[in-house]
Design goal:
5-stranded antiparallel beta sheet; two-stranded antiparallel sheet; 9 strands; about 20% helix; about 30% strand
Length: about 170
Amino acid sequence: LIELWKPKGSMFVMDLPRHYFMVRFELEEEYMAALSGGPWRAFGSYLMVQAWSPEFDPLKDEIVTTPVWVRLSHIPVNFYHKTILMGIAKGLGRPIKVDLTTLKFERARYARICVEVNLNKPLKGSVMVNGERYYVSYEGISAICSMCGMFGHLVHACPKNVTERALA
């Protein structure tokens, strides 16, 4: 985390149970940058960064939402506007920001948007815009079931698939 955020002031990191960490920054602007500058990735995984709450219990609480970069493939370049892309992203979760490379028209294969998704709900594989279907990929999230859309397992281990095989 220190290498990721490179604070100029001091930063204290305390490890908590279940792979949670509590971080204290000396400088408020560095705290705000870590809190709002993401999404952050370390070792191929997303970090869910939240303001500390005294009610948080690392032994019981679960994080169910996370920011993730999504790619909308082959979106027409006339959709490459922040307002339009944020509107499209609302169908996937809570839009956070659009990638600067996308806004500068430096890439046309896909538009990249940061969206907060609920991991307890199915993730959508595509979005419909003006009657056209555009495919969605989620950066850094590989275990998405193609049958039910849920994060955490693949189709061969899908509970729905197991139930259907048992009934057959």
